[in-house]
Amino acid sequence: MDSDLREAVDLLRAVFERRKLKSQWGTASADLVNELKKDFRIPARYRAFLTAANPVEVESVTPVEKVRLLAAEKLREGQVGFAVGEDGVTKVTGKDGDWKKSWVVVAISSLFGDPYFLDVAKLDAEGDCPVYVGEKTEKGTWRTTLAASSFASFVHILALGMDLAAGFGEAAFDEGDDEAFREAFGPRIKSIDPAAVRAKHWS
Protein backbone atom coordinates (compact mmCIF):
# COMPACT_ATOMS: atom_id res chain seq x y z
CA MET A 1 0.00 0.00 0.00
CA ASP A 2 1.14 3.57 -0.60
CA SER A 3 1.63 5.93 2.33
CA ASP A 4 -1.79 7.62 2.13
CA LEU A 5 -3.71 4.36 2.15
CA ARG A 6 -1.46 2.78 4.77
CA GLU A 7 -1.97 5.76 7.08
CA ALA A 8 -5.75 5.54 6.68
CA VAL A 9 -5.82 1.78 7.32
CA ASP A 10 -3.52 2.10 10.33
CA LEU A 11 -5.79 4.79 11.79
CA LEU A 12 -8.88 2.63 11.32
CA ARG A 13 -7.27 -0.45 12.82
CA ALA A 14 -5.95 1.56 15.74
CA VAL A 15 -9.33 3.02 16.64
CA PHE A 16 -10.89 -0.45 16.66
CA GLU A 17 -8.18 -1.58 19.07
CA ARG A 18 -8.43 1.54 21.23
CA ARG A 19 -12.19 1.19 21.58
CA LYS A 20 -11.88 -2.58 22.08
CA LEU A 21 -14.21 -3.31 19.18
CA LYS A 22 -13.85 -6.52 17.20
CA SER A 23 -12.39 -6.44 13.72
CA GLN A 24 -10.66 -9.07 11.62
CA TRP A 25 -8.21 -8.29 8.85
CA GLY A 26 -6.45 -10.67 6.50
CA THR A 27 -4.66 -10.81 3.18
CA ALA A 28 -6.31 -11.68 -0.12
CA SER A 29 -4.42 -13.95 -2.49
CA ALA A 30 -2.86 -12.49 -5.62
CA ASP A 31 -4.87 -14.90 -7.77
CA LEU A 32 -8.17 -13.75 -6.28
CA VAL A 33 -7.27 -10.07 -6.56
CA ASN A 34 -6.26 -10.56 -10.20
CA GLU A 35 -9.60 -12.25 -10.91
CA LEU A 36 -11.44 -9.32 -9.31
CA LYS A 37 -9.35 -6.90 -11.37
CA LYS A 38 -10.34 -8.73 -14.54
CA ASP A 39 -14.04 -8.97 -13.65
CA PHE A 40 -14.60 -5.54 -12.08
CA ARG A 41 -11.64 -3.38 -13.20
CA ILE A 42 -10.89 -2.52 -9.58
CA PRO A 43 -8.08 0.06 -9.43
CA ALA A 44 -4.53 -0.43 -8.16
CA ARG A 45 -4.99 1.23 -4.78
CA TYR A 46 -8.03 -0.86 -3.90
CA ARG A 47 -6.22 -4.01 -5.05
CA ALA A 48 -3.33 -3.10 -2.75
CA PHE A 49 -5.80 -2.69 0.09
CA LEU A 50 -7.27 -6.15 -0.41
CA THR A 51 -3.83 -7.70 -0.72
CA ALA A 52 -2.44 -6.13 2.47
CA ALA A 53 -5.50 -5.47 4.65
CA ASN A 54 -8.42 -7.59 3.44
CA PRO A 55 -11.39 -6.60 5.69
CA VAL A 56 -12.59 -10.07 6.67
CA GLU A 57 -14.87 -8.66 9.38
CA VAL A 58 -14.72 -4.89 9.61
CA GLU A 59 -17.70 -2.69 10.38
CA SER A 60 -17.37 0.93 11.45
CA VAL A 61 -19.98 2.08 13.98
CA THR A 62 -21.07 5.65 14.72
CA PRO A 63 -24.30 7.18 16.04
CA VAL A 64 -25.50 7.83 12.47
CA GLU A 65 -24.17 4.97 10.35
CA LYS A 66 -22.64 1.50 10.29
CA VAL A 67 -20.43 0.70 7.31
CA ARG A 68 -19.40 -2.90 6.65
CA LEU A 69 -16.43 -3.22 4.31
CA LEU A 70 -16.58 -6.17 1.92
CA ALA A 71 -13.80 -8.72 2.01
CA ALA A 72 -12.27 -9.80 -1.29
CA GLU A 73 -14.00 -13.18 -0.97
CA LYS A 74 -17.39 -11.43 -0.64
CA LEU A 75 -16.96 -8.86 -3.40
CA ARG A 76 -18.85 -10.78 -6.09
CA GLU A 77 -21.65 -11.59 -3.65
CA GLY A 78 -21.75 -7.91 -2.71
CA GLN A 79 -22.81 -6.92 -6.22
CA VAL A 80 -26.04 -8.97 -5.98
CA GLY A 81 -29.08 -6.78 -5.67
CA PHE A 82 -27.25 -3.89 -7.29
CA ALA A 83 -25.32 -4.78 -10.46
CA VAL A 84 -27.06 -8.14 -10.80
CA GLY A 85 -30.27 -9.67 -9.51
CA GLU A 86 -30.62 -12.75 -7.33
CA ASP A 87 -31.10 -14.68 -10.59
CA GLY A 88 -27.75 -13.51 -11.90
CA VAL A 89 -29.28 -11.29 -14.58
CA THR A 90 -27.58 -7.93 -14.99
CA LYS A 91 -29.32 -4.78 -13.82
CA VAL A 92 -27.07 -2.61 -15.97
CA THR A 93 -29.22 -1.24 -18.78
CA GLY A 94 -27.50 1.99 -19.76
CA LYS A 95 -30.61 3.98 -18.85
CA ASP A 96 -30.39 7.11 -16.71
CA GLY A 97 -30.89 6.30 -13.06
CA ASP A 98 -30.06 2.60 -13.44
CA TRP A 99 -26.99 0.92 -12.01
CA LYS A 100 -23.86 1.58 -14.08
CA LYS A 101 -21.30 -0.95 -15.24
CA SER A 102 -18.48 1.08 -13.69
CA TRP A 103 -19.96 0.93 -10.18
CA VAL A 104 -18.39 -1.68 -7.88
CA VAL A 105 -19.84 -2.13 -4.39
CA VAL A 106 -17.10 -2.25 -1.74
CA ALA A 107 -19.13 -1.63 1.43
CA ILE A 108 -22.71 -1.76 2.68
CA SER A 109 -24.60 0.34 5.21
CA SER A 110 -25.70 -2.16 7.84
CA LEU A 111 -28.30 0.34 9.04
CA PHE A 112 -29.92 1.32 5.78
CA GLY A 113 -28.78 -1.30 3.27
CA ASP A 114 -27.33 1.38 0.98
CA PRO A 115 -24.29 0.45 -1.12
CA TYR A 116 -20.98 2.31 -1.03
CA PHE A 117 -19.30 1.83 -4.38
CA LEU A 118 -16.23 2.74 -6.40
CA ASP A 119 -16.78 4.42 -9.75
CA VAL A 120 -13.95 2.81 -11.68
CA ALA A 121 -14.67 5.01 -14.72
CA LYS A 122 -13.24 7.96 -12.76
CA LEU A 123 -9.73 6.66 -12.18
CA ASP A 124 -7.19 9.22 -10.94
CA ALA A 125 -3.42 9.47 -11.36
CA GLU A 126 -2.81 7.58 -8.11
CA GLY A 127 -4.71 4.49 -9.22
CA ASP A 128 -7.72 5.35 -7.09
CA CYS A 129 -11.28 6.52 -7.73
CA PRO A 130 -14.13 8.18 -5.83
CA VAL A 131 -16.53 6.37 -3.54
CA TYR A 132 -20.25 7.11 -3.74
CA VAL A 133 -23.23 6.01 -1.69
CA GLY A 134 -26.40 5.00 -3.53
CA GLU A 135 -29.99 5.37 -2.39
CA LYS A 136 -32.91 3.75 -4.20
CA THR A 137 -35.68 6.24 -4.96
CA GLU A 138 -39.41 5.52 -4.95
CA LYS A 139 -39.23 5.36 -8.74
CA GLY A 140 -36.67 2.58 -8.55
CA THR A 141 -33.78 4.70 -9.80
CA TRP A 142 -30.51 5.39 -8.01
CA ARG A 143 -29.69 8.68 -6.32
CA THR A 144 -25.94 8.90 -5.70
CA THR A 145 -23.91 11.12 -3.37
CA LEU A 146 -20.15 11.47 -3.10
CA ALA A 147 -18.91 9.78 0.09
CA ALA A 148 -15.19 10.31 -0.51
CA SER A 149 -12.96 11.59 -3.30
CA SER A 150 -10.90 8.39 -3.20
CA PHE A 151 -10.93 5.00 -1.52
CA ALA A 152 -8.02 6.05 0.68
CA SER A 153 -10.04 9.07 1.80
CA PHE A 154 -13.07 6.82 2.42
CA VAL A 155 -11.09 4.63 4.84
CA HIS A 156 -9.71 7.76 6.51
CA ILE A 157 -13.24 9.15 6.96
CA LEU A 158 -14.41 5.88 8.52
CA ALA A 159 -11.50 6.10 10.97
CA LEU A 160 -12.31 9.72 11.86
CA GLY A 161 -15.95 8.78 12.44
CA MET A 162 -15.05 5.86 14.67
CA ASP A 163 -12.70 8.07 16.67
CA LEU A 164 -15.30 10.81 17.11
CA ALA A 165 -17.96 8.23 18.05
CA ALA A 166 -15.94 7.31 21.13
CA GLY A 167 -17.39 10.43 22.73
CA PHE A 168 -20.95 9.23 22.13
CA GLY A 169 -21.17 6.31 24.55
CA GLU A 170 -21.28 2.97 22.82
CA ALA A 171 -21.91 4.70 19.47
CA ALA A 172 -25.17 2.83 18.96
CA PHE A 173 -27.56 4.39 16.47
CA ASP A 174 -29.45 7.12 18.30
CA GLU A 175 -31.49 9.75 16.50
CA GLY A 176 -30.89 12.13 19.40
CA ASP A 177 -27.15 12.09 18.69
CA ASP A 178 -27.53 12.50 14.93
CA GLU A 179 -27.32 16.27 14.65
CA ALA A 180 -24.61 16.71 17.28
CA PHE A 181 -22.45 14.03 15.71
CA ARG A 182 -22.81 15.37 12.18
CA GLU A 183 -21.98 18.91 13.27
CA ALA A 184 -18.77 17.68 14.86
CA PHE A 185 -17.90 15.29 12.04
CA GLY A 186 -17.99 17.79 9.16
CA PRO A 187 -14.98 19.88 10.27
CA ARG A 188 -12.90 16.74 10.77
CA ILE A 189 -13.60 15.51 7.24
CA LYS A 190 -12.95 18.94 5.71
CA SER A 191 -9.26 18.72 6.60
CA ILE A 192 -8.78 15.65 4.40
CA ASP A 193 -11.60 15.77 1.83
CA PRO A 194 -13.40 19.10 1.30
CA ALA A 195 -15.41 17.68 -1.62
CA ALA A 196 -16.91 15.03 0.66
CA VAL A 197 -18.03 17.74 3.07
CA ARG A 198 -19.65 19.72 0.28
CA ALA A 199 -21.54 16.62 -0.83
CA LYS A 200 -23.10 16.49 2.68
CA HIS A 201 -23.42 12.74 2.99
CA TRP A 202 -21.61 12.67 6.34
CA SER A 203 -22.46 16.11 7.72
Please provide a written account of the structure.
The protein is of the alpha+beta class. The protein has one domain: SMI1/KNR4-like. It has seven helices and seven strands. Strands 1-2-3-4-5-6-7 form a seven-stranded antiparallel sheet. A hairpin with a 4-residue loop joins β2 (54-61) and β3 (66-69). The longest helix is centred in the N-terminal third of the chain and has 16 residues, at 3-18. The protein starts with a helix and ends with a helix.
> Could you give the distance between the termini?
29 Å
Helix content bin: 25-40%
Mean pLDDT: 93
Indicate the proportion of strand residues: 15-25%
Compute the CA-based radius of gyration.
16 Å
Query: What's the number of structural domains?
Result: 1
Number of helices: 7
Which descriptor suits the 3D outline? globular
Largest sheet at a glance?
A: 7 strands, antiparallel
Number of strands: 7
Superfamily (CATH H level) name: SMI1/KNR4-like
Q: State the strand order across the main sheet.
A: 1-2-3-4-5-6-7
CATH class: Alpha Beta
Architecture (CATH level 2) name: 3-Layer(aba) Sandwich
In the CATH hierarchy, the third-tier topology is known as: SMI1/KNR4-like
Order of helices and strands: HEHHEEHEEEEHHH
Summed up, what is this model?
By secondary structure, the protein is α+β, with helices and mostly antiparallel strands.
Give the SSE map.
Layout (H helix, E strand, L loop, with lengths): L2 H16 L5 E3 L3 H11 L3 H10 E8 L4 E4 L5 H4 L24 E7 L5 E5 L11 E6 L5 E7 L2 H15 L9 H16 L3 H6 L4
Antiparallel strand pairs: 1-2, 2-3, 3-4, 4-5, 5-6, 6-7
